[in-house]
Amino acid sequence: MGNSKSGAVSKELLEDLKLNTKFSETEIVQWYENFKKQCPTGRISKEEFQNIYSKFFPESDANTYAQHVFRSFDTNDDGTLDFKEYIIALHMTSTGKTTSKLEWAFSLYDVDKNGYITKSEVSEICLAIFKLIPKDEVGDLPEDENTPEKRTDKLWKIFQKGENDRVAEGEFIQVLLENEEALHLIQYEPSK
Ligand SMILES: [Ca+2]
Ligand SMILES: [Ca+2]
């Protein structure tokens, strides 16, 4: 018999994804077919990911932010996104419950993946976010968050941390669950 349908998603992976996301079998199979069509090698490189991502932000420079998003999705650190990483990412960022989204946000901000967020990591992501915001929208931002530095300071103050302190994942999630403003500051929501 063998594995004649090598193009199909394996049973183990399907079970795994059904368990770890709220997607149905039909959805996963459908996404897998699309994924294989767009990406016959079964893996998305960082460059391909940046290209795809940039299409959503034609008026700004999404490259730096896309690199960070890619890093946060590439959970096994091999420099490519496979189908599992892609689906889990999709689940966490679009349809996941708030906590899963915040877990993802934590991994986005934890640039060196050491389990803690420092102020310089917040500053790095804020810089990337600012490149993502179209120029005409930057002018509409409140005075105390209209530069990457101000935004970083404002966020860091909400976490009640000193310059050289760091934030652990549990703390990060708890603060964001309790603070609407922090939730707004950690991300860029396109206004249109
Ligand atoms: Ca990977
Ligand atoms: Ca870190």
Characterize the structure shown.
Residues 61-96, 97-132 form the EF-hand domain. May be involved in the calcium-dependent regulation of rhodopsin phosphorylation. Binds three calcium ions. GO terms for molecular function: calcium ion binding. The protein is mainly alpha-helical. The protein folds into two domains: 14-96, EF-hand (Recoverin, domain 1, Orthogonal Bundle), CATH 1.10.238.10; 99-192, Recoverin, domain 1. The protein contains eleven helices and four strands; from the N terminus they run H-H-E-H-H-E-H-H-E-H-H-H-E-H-H. The protein has a two-stranded antiparallel sheet with strand order 1-2. Helix 4 (63-73) packs across helix 7 (119-132) and helix 7 (119-132) crosses helix 9. The longest helix is centred in the N-terminal third of the chain and has 14 residues, at 25-38.
